[in-house]
Amino acid sequence: MSASRPSPGANLMIDGSRLWDSLMEMAKIGPGVAGGNNRQTLTDEDAQGRALFRTWCEAAGLTMGLDTMGTMFARREGTDPDALPVYVGSHLDTQPTGGKYDGVLGVLGGLEVIRTLNDMDIRTKHPIVVTNFANEEGARFAPAMLASGVFAGLHDKDWAYARRDADGLTYGDELARIGWAGDEVTGARKMHAYFELHIEQGPILETEGRDIGVVTGVQGLAWIEVTITGKESHTGPTPMAMRRNAGLAMARIIDLVDEVAWIHAPDASGAVGAMAISPNSRNVIPGRAVFTIDLRSPDLTTLSDMERQVQEGAGAICRDMGLEVSFEKIGGFDPVTFDADCVAAVRRAAERLELSHMDLISGAGHDAAWINRVAPAAMIMCPCVDGLSHNEAEEITPEWAAAGTNVLFHAVVETAQIQE
């Protein structure tokens, strides 16, 4: 990649109204109960969203590819049949109580790049492929970024197919059920570059009054599932000194996770999300607790130290209470540094468009983190109101969406090289 390739003029802009209308139309599929979306991966709603996206892609003259993990690839041909494609995209699946923009902006922003090129009759040397990666969220089938993880060689396809949801249904069976299992070998595609537009999911850009986040990397993440085994007993007759309360140990470990995160703040974080106690009855002392710990840091040494402190501390808490405890790392990745040339293309695009911008480290994981292992990659972020995401109240403005997509357009088209 080189900074000397032909660049789109600063006057070239996407159609912000068309982009916004597409976002609102997609949001009608899998509506949530409070204004957001519940379009979890491999559900009937996911299938409907995929079908709508395919219809739009076909109308834009794109050819659709589909791999064995269910990831969609909509291709616009370039003028050089031997040039590797520039990929752009994100995901259409949501959290159970998700917003209308997380992931979706990146996919439909990529489609808007194509629509704008069609409007202006601009051809590029490199093909451009708009991508909808399957199961980015990991809400139904853990871990997150599952399909892009298989694409990048981190996971085996058969292992991914065997992932089960809360009802015991497997990824492979559900992918076949909704009719979106492709024949293309996952990971067989080669990329010239990959760009992903996303809402920030944090408050920094809005607080700083910046239009664009130039994402230089992604902080590392560790998901640890903890299982504590004690003894169920009646809350009334059982003396306090004779209790083996798994729920109480979980509460103390939650506090420990918060303490460890604060020790490493401000560039690290930690929390407990999913929690389940058994038998979950009002007059029975919990005999079993299962919960997940989420630890994050942009520094690998710090992340590793947090994992060690949490596991050692949790082990000590359980030993002191006469409880058994086990740990399983169910997801995670090391901190990611994005490709310098791709990042520079994003920065040049923001400067060309005279948009205020700043460098960011993404606090959340994204498909780009995995794709960066097999191709040059970078991300663009736009603000979101109050930094709120993974929530039905998630909100952005049409102006933020358009600004982020304009930067995406310029970075992608510069990289794909306009043909005069």
Explain what you see:
- The protein is α/β, with parallel strands linked by helices.
- The chain has 12 helices and 15 strands.
- It has helices at residues 16-27, 44-59, 104-120, 146-151, 157-161, 171-177, 204-208, 246-263, 300-320, 340-352, 367-371, 398-416, and strands spanning 63-66, 72-76, 86-90, 128-132, 193-199, 212-218, 220-229, 233-234, 269-278, 284-285, 288-297, 324-333, 336-337, 357-362, 377-382.
- Strands 1, 2, 3, 4, 5, 6, 13, 14 and 15 form a 9-stranded mixed beta sheet that branches.
- Helix 1 (16-27) crosses helix 12 and helix 10 crosses helix 12 (398-416).
- The longest helix has 21 residues, at 300-320.
- The model has no long low-confidence stretch (mean pLDDT 96).
Poorly predicted runs of 5 or more residues: none
End-to-end separation:
19 Å
Shape: elongated
How does the major sheet shape up?
9 strands, mixed
What is the string of SSEs from the N terminus onward? HHEEEHEHHHEHEEEHEEEHEEHEHEH
How many DSSP helices? 12
- Cα radius of gyration in angstroms: 23 Å
SS-derived structural category: alpha/beta
Number of strands: 15
Helix content: 25-40%
Mean pLDDT: 96
Strand content: 15-25%
